[in-house]
Amino acid sequence: MAHKILCVTDLDGTFVKNSVDVNSVDWQAYQKLTRYSDFAIATGRSVKEINYITQRNQLHLSYAIGFNGAMIAENGNVLFSQTLASADVQALLDYLKKEKLVFDALDGEERIGNFDHEDKRRLWNMPILCLENPYDLVRQRQIYKFNIRPEAAKTSVYVKELKEHFPHLEVYQSGSTRIEVTAKDVSKGSGLQLLKKHYQLVVAFGDSGNDISMFEKSDISYCMTHASANVQAAATYVIDSFADAVKHLEQLLSL
Questions:
Q1: What value does the mean pLDDT take over residues 112-117?
Q2: Mean pLDDT estimate for the chain
Q3: pLDDT of amino acid 117
Q4: Which positions are tagged coiled coil (predicted)?
């Protein structure tokens, strides 16, 4: 811990706008921020992908919170790790197969499912196995998170149904066509709760449903203006960009 403030940002849509790179304005804001704050990333992606984007954009992290809090690493050392129970993986696979839903399951090294990404650059050096019958292979792996990808018109229906069928798991809507599922009590907020005891002030930046728990555990939170209304309502401030949020924070704290 180098500072008394910890700033934690989501990646896609918040700090990484095109799912590939941090733009120059936000990168300059990051540089200013790290003069007075430790910096962490919290994402639904894996720690492996966090490391990739960190190296690509020349970032220095104090912590990496991956899989919506299912893995937390500090300087490459894993502080916390929670996979889904094998029985829950099996039950989810049975449900996905019955509903004929597109999905990918994340084990930290690969994405495995019946989903294929048309833009491989956005996978951040993460191999994707798109199989006609992925169920047996997924069952054999230690899975941290499922991405379920329904049609946009049915996403809210499936969110409700998944929460009813799997009340012991965490279910988040993250975008119009993606639902994320992790183990119970695993969230970006739970990851932040583990770290915040070391700091006097915690600031969060995000734009999606999986960021709400992080907003709730932070002292100050910034939501991007393109986020849905319920996500905006959970934040302290709603603002246009990461860079604008950093500027506002500096004015707020007289830094």
A1: 92
A2: 94
A3: 79
A4: none
Q: What is the pLDDT of residues 38-60, one digit of tens each?
A: 999 999 999 999 999 999 999 99
Residue 143 tokens, joined: 């899975």
| Strand-strand pairing, 5-9 and 38-42 | parallel
> Who contacts 21 (Cβ-Cβ below 8 Å, separation ≥6)?
56, 57
The domains located in the chain, with CATH, are 5-81+187-253 (3.40.50.1000), 86-182 (3.30.1240.10)
Helix count (H) and strand count (E) of the chain?
9, 14
Four-residue CA torsion sign, 159, 230, 176, 122: negative
Q: What pLDDT is attached to residue 196?
A: 92
Task: Read off the pLDDT band of 119 (50, 70, 90).
Answer: confident
| Tokens 């907003």 sit on residue | 215
Beta bridge partners, 145, equal: 106
For 73-104, letters b (16+ CB in 10 Å) and e give: beeeeeebebbbeeebbeebbebbeeeebbbb
Global pTM value? 0.93
SS3 124: coil
Q: How far apart are CA 131 and CA 202, in angstroms?
A: 42
- Measured in residues, the chain has a length of 255
Which amino acid makes up residue 55?
Answer: Q
pLDDT at 123: 79
Cα-Cα end-to-end distance for the chain: 19
